[in-house]
């Protein structure tokens, strides 16, 4: 997946335009953790080819079934099927990071339950932060249920734009006047408590650079806001809208702080396995009932969390770790291998059917590509016609 695909994702707000800057340039002053050798380049290109080809075949063969046929009867089961297939493919990425690249992923903070419906918010240090949320989601059995807020221009990416639409990511322009109706409409579709959900947002609105940090600090000084050194000021309106709309169907909110030791990675660093050496992920869990209800209080709560996050990152820079490490174990090598074999086998079967079987498979592939392109461009979603499993009218979750 393109490293910039969600690098600008976040919750929109009209208040902090200073954070809407150009793409970041991460310092390369520090040496890479591992040298970039020809073997690493070859291995990285092979991994990228596998990831892209499996994504393409998964989408064109299964997306029409899970997003055209199943929704006619049940949106709930349509989402379950889509999430299963999405999660199966997505699991290849944590396996790449932890098993092939040998990146050490260290979890700390609160031990969170499995399979909760949650809203996650995290700092945005570099263009690949969002990818490491997959490592946590995989351990909690929720990998296929993770959704992101991302800038709308990314919906135009070939293949991946199709996936973003099928998986119901929320596209935004990062102008609250334009984004509010879109966010509220999309969020209102996620209120069924039977549908597992991990909604991930990056309230800073863009990834961190020193230049953006200086502008953020200037804005904070002019407006009497906290001066932050390791994060940008968070945007608050979209975060409050998310909490407000989903409150009755969420279990918790996770405050996630990500730190890199010793050098922040770029996307291609991940592909070639040269960085990062270690990724540290600190989690603080808050019951949804503990969050304030008013917009003013929610904004103040989020701002306070970012002050705490800033202090955590300062301590991490000094000490090289977050407090209370070791809350999650390592990924199972056997499960990673099984997932890889299953995905490759399914992709191989689909490829064989496309090129060597009946012409009807070629027609199906052509239809699927046309459908995915049209559905993404025109934002087409099939409503239930023959039956629907709807959430209770109150959208109350069972406690």
Topology record:
Layout: H1 38-69, H2 75-90, H3 92-100, E1 104-109, E2 118-122, H4 129-139, E3 146-151, H5 160-166, E4 170-172, H6 176-188, E5 198-201, H7 210-223, H8 237-246, E6 252-261, H9 267-272, E7 278-287, H10 295-319, H11 333-356, H12 359-378
Parallel strand pairs: 1-7, 2-5, 2-6, 3-4, 3-5
Antiparallel strand pairs: 6-7
Helix pairs in contact: 1-2, 1-5, 1-11, 1-12, 5-12, 6-8, 8-10
Organism: Aristolochia fimbriata
Transmembrane segments: 41-61, 337-357
GO molecular function: 1-acylglycerol-3-phosphate O-acyltransferase activity
Q: What is the residue-averaged pLDDT?
A: 88
- Biggest sheet architecture: 7 strands, mixed
The ordered H/E elements are HHHEEHEHEHEHHEHEHHH
Shape: globular
Task: Calculate Rg over CA atoms.
Answer: 21 Å
Keywords: Acyltransferase, Membrane, Transferase, Transmembrane, Transmembrane helix
Biased composition (Polar residues): 18-28
Transmembrane segments: 41-61, 337-357
Enzyme class: transferase
What does this structure look like?
The protein is an alpha/beta fold and 399 residues long. The chain has helices at residues 38-69, 75-90, 92-100, 129-139, 160-166, 176-188, 210-223, 237-246, 267-272, 295-319, 333-356, 359-378, and strands spanning 104-109, 118-122, 146-151, 170-172, 198-201, 252-261, 278-287. It is globular, with a radius of gyration of 21 Å. β3, α5 and β4 form a beta-alpha-beta unit. Helices cover 47% and strands 11% of the residues. It has 12 helices and 7 strands. Keywords: Acyltransferase, Membrane, Transferase, Transmembrane, Transmembrane helix.
């Amino acid at each position: 997946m393109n490293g910039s695909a969600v690098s600008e994702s976040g919750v929109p707000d009209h208040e902090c335009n200073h954070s809407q800057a150009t793409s970041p340039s991460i310092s390369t002053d520090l040496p890479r953790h591992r040298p970039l050798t020809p073997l690493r380049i070859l291995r990285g290109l092979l991994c990228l080819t596998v990831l892209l080809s499996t994504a393409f075949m998964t989408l064109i063969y299964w997306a029409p079934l899970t997003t055209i046929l199943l929704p006619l009867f049940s949106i709930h089961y349509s989402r379950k099927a889509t999430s299963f297939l999405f999660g199966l493919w997505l699991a290849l990425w944590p396996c790449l990071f932890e098993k092939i690249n040998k990146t050490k992923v260290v979890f700390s903070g609160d031990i969170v339950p499995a399979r909760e419906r949650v809203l996650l918010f995290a700092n945005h240090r570099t263009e690949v932060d969002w990818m490491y949320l997959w490592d946590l989601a995989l351990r909690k059995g929720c990998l296929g249920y993770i959704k992101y807020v991302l800038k709308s221009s990314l919906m135009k990416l070939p293949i991946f734009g199709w996936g973003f639409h099928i998986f119901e990511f929320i596209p935004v322009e990062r102008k609250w006047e334009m984004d509010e109706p879109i966010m509220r409409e999309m969020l209102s579709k996620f209120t069924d408590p039977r549908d597992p959900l991990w909604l991930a947002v990056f309230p800073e609105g863009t990834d961190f650079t020193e230049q953006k940090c200086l502008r953020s600090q200037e804005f904070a000084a002019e407006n009497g806001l906290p001066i932050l050194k390791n994060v940008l000021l968070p945007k608050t309106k979209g975060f409050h809208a998310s909490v407000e709309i989903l409150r009755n169907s969420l279990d918790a909110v996770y405050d996630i702080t990500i730190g890199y030791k010793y050098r922040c990675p770029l996307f291609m660093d991940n592909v070639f396995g040269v960085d990062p050496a270690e990724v540290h992920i600190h989690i603080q869990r808050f019951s949804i009932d503990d969050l304030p209800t008013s917009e003013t209080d929610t904004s103040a709560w989020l701002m306070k969390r970012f002050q705490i996050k800033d202090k955590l990152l300062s301590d991490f820079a000094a000490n090289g770790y977050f407090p209370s490490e070791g809350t999650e174990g390592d990924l199972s090598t056997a499960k990673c291998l099984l997932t890889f074999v299953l995905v490759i086998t399914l992709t191989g079967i689909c490829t064989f059917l496309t090129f060597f079987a009946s012409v009807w498979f070629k027609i199906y592939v052509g239809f699927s590509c046309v459908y995915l392109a049209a559905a993404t461009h025109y934002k087409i979603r099939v409503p239930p016609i023959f039956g629907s499993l709807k959430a209770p009218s109150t959208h109350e979750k069972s406690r």
